[in-house]
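Sample intake sheet
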Amino acid sequence: MAFCLKLSPLALALAASASLPSFAQSEPQSLQVVTVTGKTAPLLDVEAADVTGFGVPLAKSPRSVTVLSADLLTASAVQTLSQLIKLDASLADNYNTTGYIESMSIRGFLLDQSGNFSRNGLATSNIAPIALENLERVEVLKGVAGLQSGVSAPGGLVNYVTKVPTKELFTRATLGADDSGGAKLLLDVNQKLGPVGVRLNVVDEALRPQFDQADGSRQLLSLALATELSPATSLSANLEYHRKSQPSVPGLGLLDSDADGLGDALPVGVNPRLNLNNQAWSQPFEASSTSAEVALNHRLDADWSARVAVNTQSIRINDRLAFPDGCSSAPNYVYPGLCGNGDVDIYDYRSDGERRSLSSWDTRLDGKFKALGLQHATRLGLNGRKSSTDLAPMQAYNWVGITNIYAPVALPGDPTLTSLNTDSRERALAGYATLTSDLSPSVQSFVGARITRLNRSSEKSDGTQAVSFEQTVTTPWAGLAWSPSATTVLYASWGQGVELEVVPNRPDRFANAGQVLPALKSEQSEIGLKWQANPRLLLTAAAFSVDKPYADDVATDALPLRVAGAKTARHRGLELTAAGRVDAALSMQASLMALDAEFTQAVDPNLVGQRVTNLPNLKASVFADYKLAALPGLSLNGLVSYESAKPVTADGRVELPAAWQLDAGLSYTQRIAGKETLWRFNIENLTNRDGWREAPTAEWGGIYLFAATPRTLRASVTVEF
């Protein structure tokens, strides 16, 4: 196994400073913002999640929520968002490839990168590589989130919860490596600086994937501060800088086996290391994200508390790619897809200097009171967000020749700036309220609503094609829960969500490329059952139905015009989950989703009744961790994931076959002089199964294939100082 680790000067300096025993020798003080559970690891049974918006335990909440804890991410050796997705059956990839921005879908709906993600409860943009090392947990709310986030796709809401200072003082260093030569250094420091708790995370990583010419690097610097200003008031802050540079690996396409101009066959015999973005002029995809957050919490009395929080985020991206798209070497131009012999057109795409910024704030009041003889809990809040996208005036997207997936060809580059970019602005101001009422000792009602005022605008970089609109939307939500016993809850809920779409910035494909479209409403109904099988094991079941309107393409005399609300999909499904500790030795996180997703309205009548592409009817995931009593400190774990066949083309004639994967790992903890040393060894795709992992249809109509990750070995050691 080749081993390579190149540390940046910043990481080396921080490593030296982090190795100091402590910032101060004073006794640690409790911090109001920290919760200490006292549970034995691995901690898979998280009892509450901020993402629900109601402040009740997960076992009592009338929502379907999954919490992926830091213990689970570490035990399963999760490195990326794509790997995290395997831990829950309701989550799925969507155009997730090496070196590029990752995204996900929930319940079959693609999440909006700007509207469906939050960080410590505040809006954040996912249009940048995500660091997992400084996260305490990832909370996933499944289903419409109009009450929680306002404008967002109906799949759900993902809340990244960062690590905070804790009472225990420590300095831990982790060194990891994989069998491709990749390596990572992680420092996690928790100390005191006078009355201020300090949590520092530093990462320096050399990225060595299995693909040709795709090596890269990544750095993370994260700082969390927390202190008590008074017994009733606490102040916290989070700062993060994350940078990643790596050539992205584009997806392939279907082969046109019958020369009719449409791809219709899965490629076979492709080199698993193939990267079509390996031209001499290829450059890495570069992204850096800087964020800052401050929150003030104050307890007014025993029943009422207030919180004010604000954040800001700045993203810089250089997006460059040798992009395969269509094929012009056949008698009939092929799109979407590749020629039958594996030929594919290559475009030199470059969009340097992309700048995105986002800022948001939230102020809320939480309290309990009695009225009409009933006990109530309420949350009243006001929040706002502002975001902007500023691209360079021009981008390059130039045809440079034809290569072949079986015999790649060196092609000349053409960085000529030929296409105008589109800039956009968005502002939202929202007021929201929730009310939880104890109607009886066993029945609770949950109601809430959010009123959002939207302002969106876009224009070409030369000032032309300016579009703007203002819109006020209301997203209500209601639920009812009944507890026939102390450990069982049955619930029913209904809610609405609002989502916005932007036409892809492809002037060669759309008459209104880059324009923002009016907001559209989705609607969801859900019934569910939750059972606390033991104090640390929660079993849940949920059945849901979601109707979502989409934009669709309407033909014109020239290029298609993308129109909001021209298409509708209905997703109906059943989710089963089990999370927590079965007994003293066995812990698990298991889930299953059965999904029926089809279009109920479309411009093309042939699409109505067809299954939504890239979605299986059945998906399952089971992670288990077992402690060996005969060898204290040794644990074995495994992750089995399965999904049934899923359609690749809109007519369903091409499918990805059913697939499964087995990951395995072990860990050993030893104590030396009172300090812990943790050894880990993980194997992803133990049986080295190959095949195509996903086949998303891009917003502009292209169909892309991404291969399964080959067998990968990872090892790490964590030393506590």
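Comment: Residues 1-7, 9-37 have pLDDT under 50 and may be disordered. The longest helix spans residues 9-18.
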